[in-house]
Amino acid sequence: MDHCSQDVYQKKYYKLKLAHMPNLKHKEEYNLLLLLSLFLFLPLSSFSQNLDTLLSVGKQKLHFNIQKGEGIPILFESGGGNDGSIWNPLLEPLHEITGTTLITYDRAGYGQSSLNPDLPDKEKGFIEPGIESLFTGLQKLGYDEEVILVAHSYGGFYAVNFAAKYPNRVKAIILIDVNLKSFWTNQFLEQKRAEFTPEWLDYVKSLSPGLYYECLSLEQTVKHVRQFDFPKHIPIIDIVAENPPEFEQESDRERWKARHLEFAAKNEQVDGVLANDCSHYLHYDNPALAINSIVKLYAQVDPTSSSKDILSKSLQYNLEQSNSYREQEYEYWHSERDLNRWGYEFLEEKALENALAIFKLNTLLFPNSANVYDSYGEALLSADRKSEAQKMYQKALELDPTNEHAKEVLHELQKN
Question: What's the pLDDT score for residue 124?
Fold first, then answer.
């Protein structure tokens, strides 16, 4: 597995389980999350008016990143397991099209933000003090008036809580495959409670304090959020992925989509959008869909914006995106990465022989790629062909001596 390229994202994408609160049962899944932060979330040095600040909010510090502009600010709320950098790829085109202020931040315990030492453990990740600290931080920064909210995944809880608490401050909301309170039944909460064993929580704590404390307070947060509804006067675009989070039960995947479709059908102010052929991180699968949705509501609710200017810039962006997409699609089709993804789709579907055939073909077509041998080795392990798998991992390590994943697997195989 090539840990220093976007192949990591393509290869393991289907395994991400970060919709409600990540089921981080394998270290490689959390490592993927960290790698996404390192390699996919682009630096923001291109913004001439970028404010990167660590702000004191009571006894904790919150990290904000702000691209200054004119108009109603857009505030981004990340999902569980993610800091504010999850939004970086969308910011430059959004800033270019709208010219408005864009605000991302790290919740307590994520990124550069600290935890509040005065709160008990079960309160450190609870949503209510999180909302309060966010509001205080925005006040200190001078953004205590109107905002547009953009939320992903677990950030949906923050969006509904923030909007219900400050209904006159929120002008519009864009929901990107978020948690809806209607999805969180008591039965599903009980299922999550059973998964959060002390051993699992200790493991998560060693990787991410923010995620650990959000796990501790998850049940309390869900029950708290159940008392809130999105104010009916706020226009909302609710985008749900065709391929939602990888829950343990297929019925939960279908229920996730059904709750979103019901949410849009029952609320006149909500435009529901099904993101075709997209997974949970749909703003990476289809960034144009996310950006156009944000731009649409921004132009609708900001009276100071020039619709003609925004439309012109939006059209230019979409033309460039369309051209770039075709170019990337041509390069990707039947490429090493395309075949690798196809192999993992077979692996996920338990079609082991098909997966093995695809991964083996990839080693023949791309014999100098460490990534293809690593993937073939993983499939061979799934087939309990350990000696062959060991050879593939050795070949991967020979081609890429920095491949930590291959080193770890070989170490385990040699112990046995």
Answer: 96
Q: Show the CA angle centred on residue 215, arms to residues 136 and 106, nearest 5°.
A: 35
pLDDT score recorded for residue 330: 46
Q: Can you tell me whether residue 22 is helix, strand or coil?
A: coil
Q: List phi, psi (to 5°) of 240.
A: -120, 140
Q: Check whether residue 142 and residue 60 sit in a common domain.
A: yes
Helices (H) and strands (E) counted in the chain, each on its own, are 19, 8
Both 95 and 189 in one domain: the answer is yes
More confident residue, 110 or 341: 110
Distance CA(147)–CA(186), nearest Å, equals 33
Looking at the predicted structure, is the pLDDT value of residue 347 above 50? yes
Same domain, 87 and 148: yes
In a domain, 376, yes or no: yes
What is the average pLDDT score of the chain?
Answer: 83
Confidence of residue 39 (pLDDT cuts 50, 70, 90): very low
Q: Name the 3-class secondary structure at 152.
A: strand
- What is the rounded average pLDDT of the residues 139-145? 93
The residue assigned the tokens 């799934």 is 382
Distance, in Å, from the CA atom of 352 to the CA atom of 129, rounded to the nearest integer, reads: 47
Contact present, 152 and 20 (Cβ < 8 Å): no
- Give the CA radius of gyration of the chain: 22
Listed residues 329, 352, 373: the one ending a domain? 329
Give the pLDDT mean for 282-308.
83
Strand order in the sheet with 270-275: 50-57, 60-67, 102-106, 74-77, 147-152, 170-176, 236-241, 270-275
Is 142 found in the same domain as 251?
yes
What values do phi and psi take at 126, rounded to 5?
-70, 145
Grouping H, G, I as helix, E, B as strand and the rest as coil, residue 234 is: coil
- Residue 183: CA count within 13 A, CB half-sphere: 27
pLDDT tens per residue across span 323-343: 455 445 444 445 787 788 888
Nearby residues of 157 by Cβ (< 8 Å), 6 or more positions away: 127, 178, 179, 181, 221, 222, 225
CA separation for the pair 36, 18 (Å, rounded): 13
- Tell me how far CA of residue 155 lies from CA of 16, 80, 106, 174, 343, in angstroms: 16, 7, 12, 11, 32
Whole domain around residue 404: which residue ranges? 336-415
